[in-house]
Automatic annotation (TrEMBL):
Protein name: PadR family transcriptional regulator
InterPro entries the UniProt entry points to: Metal_resp_DNA-bind_regulator, Tscrpt_reg_PadR_N, WH-like_DNA-bd_sf, WH_DNA-bd_sf
Domain Transcription regulator PadR N-terminal: 19-90
Annotated source species: Hymenobacter crusticola
Lineage: Bacteria, Pseudomonadati, Bacteroidota, Cytophagia, Cytophagales
The organism's place on the tree of life at top rank: Bacteria
């Protein structure tokens, strides 16, 4: 078993949450999302992002508007719907619960009484 496979699965599991967080700040173009995700070391390609955006749109969490571009064809800018805002709120609560659970598990002393290794 390779650690890289588990790392990829962990990132995939939180990708939707990260995308919604980015869009929650205001309307955003998909290429800008890709840049931000890449800068945050969330390795994503267009072939992953666009189907996910479509799925979120079809679920009623996102909306988009077309805007003219000075450097080519019109661009699609995404925003959260009210349903998307509530969905993100619930994901944030879940993230806090999971983070707290992991912290509790990682901080528990080993069976021999020693502290867990620091990472």
């Amino acid at each position: 078993m390779k650690v890289e496979n588990t790392q990829v699965q962990m990132r995939k599991g939180i990708l939707e949450f990260c995308i919604l967080e980015i869009i929650a700040r205001g309307e955003v173009y998909a290429s800008d999302m890709l840049e931000e995700l890449t800068a945050a070391r969330m390795i994503v390609v267009e072939g992953t992002l666009y189907p996910l955006l479509t799925r979120l749109k079809n679920a009623g969490l996102l909306d988009y508007t077309w805007k003219e571009s000075t450097s080519g064809p019109p661009r699609k800018y995404y925003t959260l719907t009210p349903t998307g805002q509530e969905f993100l709120h619930e994901l944030r609560l879940t993230w806090e619960e999971v983070s707290d659970s992991i912290r509790i598990i990682r901080q528990k002393p080993h069976a021999n009484g020693s502290a867990p290794p620091q990472a």
